[in-house]
Amino acid sequence: MNSIERTLLTLEGKLPDRVPVDLHNFLVTARLMNVGSYADYFRDGEAMAEGQIMAWKRFGHDVLIIENGTAALAGALGVEVRFQSDSAPVATTPVLKSLDEVDKLKLPDPYKDPILSELLKATRIVVDQIGDQAFVIGRADQGPFSLACELRGMGDFLLDLAKNKQPEKIEQLLDFCRQVCHRFAVAQIEQGAHATSIGDSSSGPDVISPTYYRKFAYPYVKRLLDDLKSQNILLAYHICGNSTSIIDDMVSTGAAILEIDQKADMTKAKFAANGRTTLLGPIDPSGIMAHATPDAVAEKCREALDILAPGGGFILGPGCALPAFTPDDNIFAMIETAKEYGHYTI
């Protein structure tokens, strides 16, 4: 059974030969490539593809996520983005000084924007070279709520929500961001990716209340998922932090995969997701994967497998992006643990 068969069976709620493994390792690929500047690397589709393929050949993981961080869509919409020499690009200066400026926003063409087109190129190259052997997720960058935070500035946008003086403008901005996400997600699938994904961590309970999540984030993700599912497009949905209080809502969006991190209650997440979606994660990318020993990594992976693997519907991986300096030995420990302990029994 190869990685594609293994992952697709998992997403179908069936039991493959073992639990698949994802690495969420775009920063690690930059380190493996020994690039002089991450800033140049994350602007270059060919380089990003080469790094992903190099990492896959080295580690043999099942699921590849093609991305360059959290600022690609924001940059395409005019947000100032700082490309750093030793880390991922970050969105800095927002483009909307007030909600009254929402009318000025224009949908970007992912095939023409300098950075989005390079990300599509990276996905296309990876698919062309190893897409028949590994499950490729072309990330659609940020979800509607997180993108709105980048366009307006998180502090100002959260204040807009609290004041609620312009509800129609808030709705217009969030729906515009939904359309931007949809367009890029479809473009990633057009490159041959098996699935796409979004990160919407600004909408999680570590930032806003579950009530605000259900009012301002959930409806737009749900509509995005409905539209993508009507096109037979699989999407992974990621929210950092302790998502336990909204895990039922996340499941009900219809996402094929929910990416959870180490703060989430694994038992409650398994109960909510069981038979309805696939969970991905939840190993601590920093405290465990980057800073602990291989034995500690293996122990945490076995714990996750014990709780989340029974009955299927689980992909083992870090709960968020691995730091660039994550030791290779720790990555191998995760993969070998899945191979040794991630087998299903009848």
UniProtKB/TrEMBL annotation:
CDD domains to which the protein is assigned, alphabetical: URO-D_like (cd03465)
Highest classification ranks of the organism: Bacteria, Bacillati, Chloroflexota, Anaerolineae, Anaerolineales
Chain ranges passing through the membrane: none
Protein name: Uroporphyrinogen decarboxylase family protein
Species: Candidatus Desulfolinea nitratireducens
Domain Uroporphyrinogen decarboxylase (URO-D): 4-341
InterPro entries named in the record: Methanogen_methyltrans, UROD/MetE-like_sf, Uroporphyrinogen_deCOase
GO-annotated biological processes: porphyrin-containing compound biosynthetic process
Family matches, as Gene3D superfamilies: 3.20.20.210
Matches recorded under PANTHER family: METHYLCOBAMIDE:COM METHYLTRANSFERASE MTBA (PTHR47099:SF1)
Molecular function as annotated in GO: uroporphyrinogen decarboxylase activity
